[in-house]
Amino acid sequence: MPHRVFIGIGSNLGDRQANCREARTKLGELPNTRVVAASSYYESEPHGDAKTWFVNSVVEIETDFAPADLLKHTKKIEDAMGRKRVKGKRWGSRVVDLDILLFNNEVVNKRNLKIPHPRLAERKFVLAPLAELAPQLIHPALNISVSEMLATVKDSKRLHMLSV
Question: Of 46, 111, 135, 141, which residue is the least packed, with the fewest Cβ within 10 Å?
Answer without folding.
Answer: 111
